[in-house]
Amino acid sequence: MKKRLLYGFLSFLMIFLLALFTIPVQSTDILEEGTECSTLAAGKRATQDGSVLYGHNEDDGGNIVTRLHLVPRINHGPGETIQMWDIKLPDGTLATIDQVVGETWAYFWSEIPGQQFADSYLNEWAVAIASDACGSREKPPYDLTNGGIAYWLRRLVAERAKTAREGVKIAGAMVEKLGYASSGRTYIIADPNEAWLCQVVRGKHWVAQRVPDDQVAFIPNRYTIHQVNLADTKNFLGSSDLISYAITKGWYNPAIDGEFDFAKAYGNYTGTDIRQRGALRLLTGIEYSPTETAPFSVTPKQKLTVKDITDVLRTHYEGTPDDQTKYPINLNPNYPLGDPHHTGLRVICTASTQESFVMQLRSNMPPHIGNIYWRAQGRPCESVYVPLYLAMLEFPTPYTVGDPASYNQLPLSARYYDPNSAYWVFNKMETLVDLDYLVKKPVVRSFWDDVEATEFALQDEIEKTAHKMYEGKNYHGEDRYFADWFLTRYSQSLALDAYYKALGFIEEFEP
Predict the structure, then answer these.
(1) Under DSSP, is residue 198 helix (H, G, I), strand (E, B) or coil?
(2) What per-residue confidence (pLDDT) applies to 275?
C-alpha cells in the first residue's frame, strides 16, 4: 500500500508539473578520521551516457552527523583572510590564509561538523571533490609553513575551481606553499570532462594523475599512482622534485628499485587491498590476488551506468568466497549472523559509512540540468540514492539539520535519536535492519530498488522537460528560474519520500 502511495504521488507530481507548462510527455525506450572511505571514478568514454561518474562512500566514526548546505557566490574585498579552525599555531592562535579578491563560486556542501577530512562538495561549475585518507612514510620534522593546511584544501577547490584540472593545480599550489598537515590523502577531483586523483603527502609533496577517459579507477585508503611522467602534463601534475626527494629520504634507489613507483616509494604499499579486489571484480570480471598490485585504472567489462557505480558502493562481496553475509570473519557477538557491517573483513559498504554518493557529471546539456548528485543517506545497501540536481534552490529541511552525537557505541536504548533529522532517521533505521539483517535487509532493499528503478525510468523525461523550460520551447521565453524550481521540487519530493519511508521502516521494525 505504501509503495503504491509513493508511485501515486510521483505520478501526480509529474502530471501536474508537465501539464502546468504544457510540455508533452513522449514515451522513451590506521590513520585519521575518514580512514575507511572508498571511491571510484570513471572517465567519460567508460560510461554509457558519456558522463564522468564519481562514486564515494564517506566512512567516519566518533561524534557524527551529516548536514547539507547550499552556499551562494560570495564577493570578497581586499585584505580578507580565512581563519583555519583546524590549524593551531604555537602561540595558540588559529592560522590564517589570504582570501581571493572577487567572487568565490556557489556550491553544494555535505558537512560532517567538526571533522577535518570528511566533507564533500559539488560547485556550480560541476567540479566535485571528496577524499580518501592514505598513510605516507613521512616522519617528523614535517615541512609545514604556519601550521600547514588540512580541511581548507578541499574547500578552496570548491570555492575557486572552474575545472577539475584547475582544482588540482589549486590544491597542489597550497600543498607546496603551506605543506599538508596530515599523514597523506587522495583528493578525487572531477568535472564533466575528466577526473583526477591528487595524492598528497604530509609536508610539501604531491602528485596527480588523470583517469583515462576509457577507464575507471578505484581508490581504497592507499596511494594508487605508480609510474609518473611529469613531462606528460595532459595526464600528470605534481612536485618537480618528487623523485629526487624520495631518493634523498632513502625511499627510492634507482639502481635497486628500477622504475620509480610513487605508491611504493611514498606509501610503501604492496599487493591489492580487499576493497580493490572486490570492486575490480565487479567492474572488470577479473580476479586480482592479494599479492598482485592492481593498476592505477582498468577498462570496465561494459560501459558503466550510475547503477553500476552504486552496486560497487553497496557491495559486501556477495556471491564470492569473501561474502560477509555468509562467511563472516571475526563476527561481532553483539550482532547476528549475516550482518556484514560488523565483521573483521573490511567491506566497501560498512558500519561507519555515513553517506554515499555518485556524481553524474555531463557536458552535453546545461550544467544545472546535466549534473546530478545522487546521494544515499547512511549505508547505501540499506538506503536509496536520490537525484539532487545542480539546479536545486534549496534542500529539504530534514537533510539540513541534526546535531553530532556518538551512536554506535551505546546500548540501543541509550542511543541519540532525532526524528526531525534525516541523518538520525536513516541511522536508526539501518541499526534496526542490522539487528536482523538477513530478514529485514531484503524488505528495505526491495522497496528502495523499486524507487531507484522509477527514478532511472523518469530521468530522461524529467530532463527533457527542464531543458524545454530552459530553452523556452512551449513556454513564453527562456526562463531558467522555472526549470530550476521544477528540478528542485522533483528532487525534494524524492528526498522527502525517502525520509518518510525510513520513518515508516523504523515504526515497522522497532521491537
Answers:
(1) strand
(2) 94
